[in-house]
Amino acid sequence: MPQISQLAATYSSQIFWMLLIFGAVFFLVGRGMAPRVIETMEGRDQRISADLSAAEAARRDADAQDDAWKASAAKQRGEAQALIAAAKAEAAKSTEVRLGASSAEAEVRVAEAEARIAAARDGALAEIETVAADAAADIAARVAGLTVPADAARAAVKDVLHG
Amino acid sequence: MAAEAKVDPMHQFAIQPMFGTEHWSVAGFNIAFTNSALWMLISAVALYAFMLGGMKRELVPGRWQMMVESMTGFIENMLTANIGKEGRKYLPYVFSLFMFILFANLLGLLPLGLVGIHPFTFTSHFTATGVLAILSFGIVLVVGFWKHGLHFFSLFVPHGTPLPMIPLIFVIELVSFLVRPFSLGLRLFVAMMAGHVLLEVLSSFVIGGANAGVFFMGLVSIPSFILMVAICALEILVAGIQAYVFALLTSLYINDAEHLH
Lengths: 163, 261
What we know:
The complex is a heterodimer.
Chain A (H helix, E strand, L loop, with lengths): L1 H4 L1 H137 L6 H13 L1
Helix pairs in contact in A: 2-3
Chain B lengths: L16 E3 L5 E2 L2 E2 L2 E2 H18 L10 H20 L8 H19 L16 H23 L17 H46 L2 H46 L2
Antiparallel strand pairs in B: 1-4, 2-3
Helix pairs in contact in B: 1-3, 2-3, 2-6, 3-6, 4-5, 4-6, 5-6
């Protein structure tokens, strides 16, 4: 077993080189490189979690903005509907008022026209009576040779006309 | 050919000085650069190259960076799970330990013998694993006494020990504590050596059976070869598991030192 048979001759060399080379490994690899590898990994983990939380914050922000937008849209819609309703009511009211006014005017004018018609008819009747009395007196004078006074003729015509 | 067919399963563990045998010494101790030291160096360089591929530090990692990060993250998770948030400061040590042992174990398994290079698994030498084990144990002692002072000795008296039992328990716990560096170092050394010896012994069966004729080749060589293939897969697993066990036990011991019980 060379480990034992060569022990006396080689132990010092083994220990010396082991310490020297492992020492070099410790300082170069262990202290120089491994912490930087860990640092890189931690930096990456932090970056990932920072990115994730930033994304989460952005999502929450977007949600809040969306909610605000929805609320304002609903409010504006409500306002618009109120405006429309008010305008509708206004329009209906003014239509009604104008309708009332024009119908009153129309009634007045109808009444005036009726009065005028009645007057015209009365006038025409009176005229007809006069004409008829004249004609009756004329007829009586020609046919019977009677001279009928104008008043009597008019009374007689009136009698006939009005029953 | 037949004379050289004899396979010495222990030869692979022999340390061969490469240069500096005579002149290189520190305070009288020989520090020749051996094949063992060469493979330590190769493991270290391979590990450095592996890590360098993962140092692009991109936000979206490539495959190589992903490998390096999963290794680092694996050790970091282990430390956080076993020690807690204080475990972070031991990452450099435990990561170096794990990766260095893992690379050493895996590189020692490479079939480079096919191209004439003989991989040397320095983790199959207790002089090498012992250094790492004593380092881990030393860190446990330093951290324990630094943080808790003499109160660290309460580690040897579990909560709720009845008063008359305390001296006995103290001695038992102390012994089990002091055995830790040995168990730590020997476990790795034994596991690596056993696997390599097993492969070598089976390969000697393959060669010996083939040399003994067609009948023995069918009877011995082919089943041994199939077994070798399976054991190679097992050895790759063991290489990872032993590196993991070493790092895991180190972190558990450090946890003891950080938090006592």
